[in-house]
Amino acid sequence: MPAGIWAKTLFRLPLVLEVNSPLYDERKKYGGIALEKFAKWTEYYAWRNADHVLPVTEVLAHYIEQAGVPRERITVVPNGIDPTRFGTHSPILRDAKFANKRVIGSVGFCREWHHLDQVLDLIAQQHNPDLMLLSIGNGPVIDALKQQAQKLNMEDNFHSTGLVERDEMPYWLAQFDIALQPAVSPWASPLKVLEYMVSGKAIIAPNPSNIRELLTNQRVNRVRSFLLTSITSGRANTY
């Protein structure tokens, strides 16, 4: 989108550009591009002519450097959340349908490449009626997952909420025992991981470099230490 660069030039204003993905690569892989050379040129043009570029991961910063942007004009600013939205002074009760279940939960718009079908297969292989998958959100594969659960005789072990309001997220995260970060694009900074962390959830996630920017042994230990302090101070139900 070169319009931002033209506007900054016309009005003689500095332009700070946030970048959440290498859009050319993303659309080429997942959505298709009609004019490939033109699409790539516009992206590189915007990156190179911005006064400063703010990618959300170090992985993405490398893409931008490879396009010719000097490192001194790049600052990585990971995605973030407001932790106060997930605090409460009273415990959130489990919904009756999940009360006696061990719940593996996932948040987000579900696509085929998230491979939640494989999670359902793994749950079925455990032959444990108390283990279930809870999907928070919508997406094109939800109907297929429901059909798969039915074929596996697991209707009681899979639940999808559909779209939920933002303010309802603390309630739904409280239903999780284990939080799942499915397969993810290699440059993303997933908000769900941060929400899982501030909610004190055990997290299962893939191991690419961008996820390791959020989840490392040292940082996990810090979160555990923080939670332990909260528990011993009598504030465990806050997290």
UniProtKB/TrEMBL annotation:
Tell me the enzyme class: transferase
Write down the InterPro entries for this protein, in alphabetical order: Glyco_trans_1 (IPR001296), Glyco_trans_4-like_N (IPR028098)
Q: What is its EC number?
A: 2.4.-.-
Does this UniProt record's set of keywords contain Cytoplasm? no
- Tell me one GO molecular function of this protein: glycosyltransferase activity
Domain Glycosyltransferase subfamily 4-like N-terminal: start-end pairs = 3-85
- Protein name according to UniProt: Glycosyltransferase
What is the organism field in this record?
Celerinatantimonas yamalensis
